[in-house]
Amino acid sequence: MHGVKRIRYSREALEAKQQRDKAKLQEYLALTEEIISRKKNGDYSHEAFDLTTRMLRVNPEFYTVWNYRKTILVKEFFLKSTPHQINDVLSGDLDMTTAFLKQHPKIYAIWNHRRWCLEQVPEGPTEADPNGWKMANWKKELYVVEKMLDVDARNFHAWNYRRYVLASMPVHRSEQSELDYTTRKIEANFSNFSAWHQRSKVLTTLWETGKANPAQNREEELELVRNAMYTDPFDQSVWIYHRWLIGEGSDATILQAEISSIQELLDEQPDSKWCMESLVHYKQLLLRNHSAIIGAEDRQVVKTSCLDLLLQLQHVDSERKNRYGDLAVRIRDMDI
Amino acid sequence: MGAEPKLNIPLHVKYIQSLGENKDDLTYHLTAHLRMNAVYWGLTALYIMKNKDALDREEMIEYVMSCWDEQAGGFGAHPDHDAHIHATLSAIQILVMQDALDRVDVDRVTKFILSLQQPSGVFAGDAFGEIDTRFLYIAVQALSLLGRLHELDVEKTVGYIQRCRNFDGGFGAIIGAESHAAQVFVCTAALAILDRLDVIDQETLAWWLSERQLPNGGLNGRPEKLEDVCYSFWVLSALSILKKLNWIDADKLIKFILSAEDLEHGGIADRPGDQPDVFHTQFGVAGLSLLGYPGLEDIDPVYCLPAKITEAKGLRKDWEALPRRV
Fold first, then answer.
1. Which residues in chain A have Cβ-Cβ distances shorter than 8 Å to B211?
2. Cα four-point dihedral sign B169, B170, B172, B177
């Protein structure tokens, strides 16, 4: 149970509640028994289908009943119906699960049933337009999932489903429009790491397929990230994403520019843990990958500043003081 | 620990014992699809609290066997529920803890599990095809407990986990999914069982995991999310496999877990003041065990089973919990 407040009932209130629940309980147990017994008897009738609807409205987590519902469709209904009827019943299930999701946005079984329904949509409505029904359904999916993400922008069920829909739509949407979607989500809330994550995936695809220029994108991304950092230097989402942008720090110019930009922010926000932690990380990359371009004296300066920052971090961010201690030992022992 | 709050073991034992007596309660029946898991959570928590015999052994074994789905060759969550890989693992774990694995048709259940592997390497939960790295871990652990790991296509399995790895070092539920502490646990533990921790960017992952701790001591599952007691296990288990458990503040986390105890009825909740349940009770107690809390049995973070059990089966991997306090 997540986020359900503990309630203290008085003896009278508890008895009244149990009395109320008693009727519901009997109805629930009778319905369960009826469904299980029909299922055992291989009953794939319309009545059995309607009983699963009734049950799933009460308990959408009852996976055995979802399975039974699918079995009824596959073993009976699909065999005896026209494509039109099949499309109608699947659209009906999609509508039903949309309503369920509004109430239970995090139940795996509901999301899964949607996937299953979409994959069963037949060809039609006509031979000339075999993808018509599929297109209509898939198009609706993106709308549904955006509504879900408007309510809870971090719902990972919705994000996973979104990626599934984007990958499966009969007509693919451009990666650029998905990038724009993540921009909107990030601008609405910089701390939405789910959107930053999605952005890293979309950009990777754009680069791998040669649809975008990594160097140009990186510059724009660093600008976006800088805005977010200045807006809230204590929010970790943006710092984690920044780490992805820098990667192994193979570009010394970028690395050095970012180090001085973070240093500037630290001067303004002297207790920013993320500024200090990131500086240590990037300076370490500098020492590791570009020691040739900094003089021996400067190397010692960089090393000392890392050790100073780690000492401060042990106080500012004491939960992780052992990590900072371990890093300090490693940097001290660095052969530079 | 002086006047510090203490884990109220007798109360939690009573709470777990009482869970089977709520049959007049609607919620009890609404959660039947989790019953097998709940029995596993309850028994493991009792075992870690050194009260393994607080539930009747014979009754438990009979219950587990009554959930066998003869048609599919696996266990369901409750009698007459369909076989599912998650219920199947819980059943095997319970039988292992009760030293009654001889009740299982190992050939059939192995076949059931292996039949769920997809061409991509991931596992489905059942014949209806939902995929998740949770199910992959479940398959790996179940086969390991059954002594049938050699029947698994390890390369294919590891390959899927590898493709779930994100730049932050973590893993998600499927390829492309955001890193999540519970998925990090399943992927890390599966790799530990398969002796393939080389797949992990350990430095980055341990950093990401240590950043799950919030100023109130609790752990969250993803950046900028709320703390929850169950992450005490997901995050700590992965950190102990990476041998970096000291990268978080143990005292603060112990305090947070204990603040979520229900000291009236027993049990531990997700957060202070919330309704307790057996899931959070188990993962709270398991977290405390890894943190070296006094008076508890060691839990094996790879299998989420008592370490005595995995050691006796010769399955212990190389992990490090914090030393047991006295």
1. 236, 320
2. negative
Closest CB from A3, A28, A244 relative to B270: A3
Flag whether residue B35 sits within 8 Å of chain A, measured between CB atoms.
Answer: no
Report d(CA B19, CA B42) in Å as an integer: 9
Question: Which chain A residue shows the shortest CA-CA distance from B23?
Answer: A25
CATH no., domain A247-336: 1.25.40
- Rounded-to-integer distance, Cα A34 and Cα A21, Å: 20
Beta strands in A90-150 (DSSP E): none
Q: Do B33 and A64 touch (CB under 8 A)?
A: yes
Q: Which residues pair with B124 in a beta bridge?
A: B131
Name the residue facing B33 among A7, A29, A62 (closest C-beta): A62
Give a three-class secondary structure readout of B162-186.
HHCECCCCCECCCCCCCCCHHHHHH
Which tokens belong to B226?
Answer: 């709320």
Kindly report the CA angle at A162 between A152 and A167, in degrees rounded to 5?
Answer: 170
Q: What is the pLDDT of residues B54-66, one digit of tens each?
A: 999 999 999 999 9
What is the number of structural domains in chain B? Answer: 1
Which 3 state secondary structure label does DSSP give A222? helix
Nearest CB among B129, B177, B213 relative to A160 is that of B177
B320 inside domain: no
**Which residues from B are below 8 Å from A185, CB to CB?**
none
How many other CB atoms are found less than 10 A from the CB of residue B289? 26
**Closest CB to B82 among A18, A67, A154:** A67
Q: How is residue B102 written in tokens?
A: 């001889």
Give the CA distances from residue A209 to residues A174, A199, A247, in Å, rounded to whole numbers and listed in that order: 12, 15, 20
| Residue B220 within any structural domain of the chain | yes
Closest CA to A145 of A120, A174, A110: A110
| Dist. CA A241–CA B213, nearest whole Å | 19
Q: Which residues contact B276 (CB under 8 A, 6 or more apart)?
A: A1, A6, B15, B260, B261, B262, B265, B266, B267, B268, B269
Q: pLDDT, tens digit, for every residue of A249-274?
A: 999 999 999 999 999 999 999 999 99
Does some domain include residue B325?
A: no
Q: What is d(CA A258, CA A250) in angstroms, rounded to the nearest whole number?
A: 13
Model confidence pLDDT, tens digit, residues A117-171: 999 999 999 999 999 999 888 889 999 999 999 999 999 999 999 999 999 988 8
What are A132's two structure tokens?
């018509």
Q: Where are the domains of chain A?
A: 247-336
Residue carrying the six token digits 């079984």: A109
The candidate with the shortest Cα–Cα distance to A237, out of A197, A297, A188, A267, is A197
User: Residue B2 falls within a domain, yes or no?
Assistant: no
Are A25 and B277 an interchain contact pair (Cβ–Cβ within 8 Å)? no
Domain with B152, as residue range(s), is 9-312
Q: Say yes or no for a CB contact (<8 Å) between B222 and A193.
A: yes
